[in-house]
Amino acid sequence: MAPKPAASVRLTAAVLGSVVAAGCSAAATHSPSQRQAVPPVVSVPLPGEEARGLTVPFDAYNFSPAEIMTIEAAEDLLIRDCMRDQGMAWEVLPQARQEDVEPPHRRRYGVIEPQMAQLFGYHVPAERPSVAERRARWDVRTAKLSAQERRAAYGDDTAGDGGGCARQARRTRLQGAPKVDSSLFNRLIEQTFEASQRDENVVRAFQSWSACMTAVGVRYANPLQAVTDERWMRDDRPSSAEIRVATADVRCKEKTDLVAVWARAEKRLQDDAVRGHAEQFRVLKASKDQQLLTARRLLTRESSG
Fold first, then answer.
1. What is the rounded CA–CA span in Å between residue 303 and residue 287?
2. What pLDDT is stored for residue 104 in this prediction?
3. Least confident of 27-41, 183-197, 236-250
4. Looking at residues 62-67, what average pLDDT do you find?
5. Please, what sign has the CA dihedral across residues 289, 290, 291, 292?
6. Which burial class, exposed, middle or buried, applies to 45 when counting CB atoms under 10 A from its CB (0-12, 13-18, 19+)?
7. Mean pLDDT value across the chain
8. Contact of 259 with 24, CB cutoff 8 Å
């Protein structure tokens, strides 16, 4: 099946599994491609320094993919204990290796790592091994639950927000954390990202990048047009043409210093947003910190036996 087209940059919640509807501040990230992952025939490289080093001010208030997995792991323990109290078993899933977990901004500005472009073009690669194993075991565990176990774990779910031991685990994890309304944060994430593309320095960098791309015979106004080109949506694997364009894309980003220019613009805009909504961001930070503190304490208690 060919990957689905992505007409524009989307705001996507990076809140997974048991963290959904749990009151986390919206762990949102910009991902220009929501395509089906390339089948795991080629080994996926560890994130390069280009991706690992890319940060934005909102990171302090947001849950990264690694932090979400920490929270999920803690909730998993709480669900296990709750299920045991009802005389039922619950398999605790293995945690993914930290180095396997995606950095939050690996594809924020499209493809930025030369090796990823050479291997996958604009396609989203499969997950690293320990992340893929955890997801697969999650799916197997869910499929094996009896009706009684499912009700105990998740309730009847008539409200669409889960129930049972999962809801109890979330309540425990949220104890002591200020309540937050993530709608403003989500809105500011999207607004600042869109505004950054109108920054005069970013516009000039786009123009330089676009001129550089003409060397490979393609015309895009900016990198988001390149990554969402419908030609790349037709197949599950990248074509030689896609690899060629993606490789040139990364090379042109490096030549024009586009990623650094764009990141500086976002930093300025996000810093302004934090100052303009100081109290809301204070509460977001306090809530995030308390939730992570609770989760890490649970994991430490488990590991110390």
1. 25
2. 94
3. 27-41
4. 95
5. positive
6. middle
7. 86
8. no
Q: State the alpha helices, DSSP H only, in the chain.
A: 49-52, 65-85, 114-120, 129-144, 147-154, 164-174, 183-196, 200-213, 223-227, 240-256, 258-276, 278-304
Q: Please report, as a single letter, which amino acid is at residue 14.
A: A
Contact (Cβ atoms closer than 8 angstroms) between residue 188 and residue 273 = yes
The position carrying tokens 């015979």 is 217
The CA distances from residue 53 to 66, 113, 125, 195, in Å, are 15, 12, 20, 22
Using an 8 Å Cβ cutoff, are 225 and 237 in contact? no
* The residue to which tokens 């809801």 are assigned: 167
Spatial contact of 79 and 165, defined as CB atoms under 8 Å apart: yes
Looking at the DSSP bridge assignments, the partners of residue 31 are 10
Q: pLDDT of 123-163, one tens digit each?
A: 998 889 999 999 999 999 999 999 999 999 998 754 444 57
* 122 has pLDDT over 90: yes
- What is d(CA 109, CA 31) in angstroms, rounded to the nearest whole number? 8
Confidence bin at 25 (pLDDT 50/70/90): very low
User: Which residue's entry shows tokens 């997995």?
Assistant: 69
Rounded Cα–Cα distance for residues 3 and 6 (Å): 9
| Alpha-carbon gap, residue 45 to 48, rounded angstroms | 8
Find where tokens 């390069």 sit. Answer: 48
Tens of pLDDT, residue by residue over 164-174, are 999 999 999 99
Strands 10-13 and 28-31: antiparallel
What span, in angstroms and rounded, lies between the C-alpha atoms of 112 and 230? Answer: 20
pTM of the model: 0.83
For tokens 């990076």, name the residue. Answer: 14
Q: What is the arithmetic mean of pLDDT over 275-282?
A: 97
Whole-number Å distance between alpha carbons of 235 and 241: 12
Query: Rounded mean pLDDT of 32-57?
Result: 74
CA 59 distance to own-chain centroid = 12
Q: Which residue has the tokens 């395509």?
A: 35
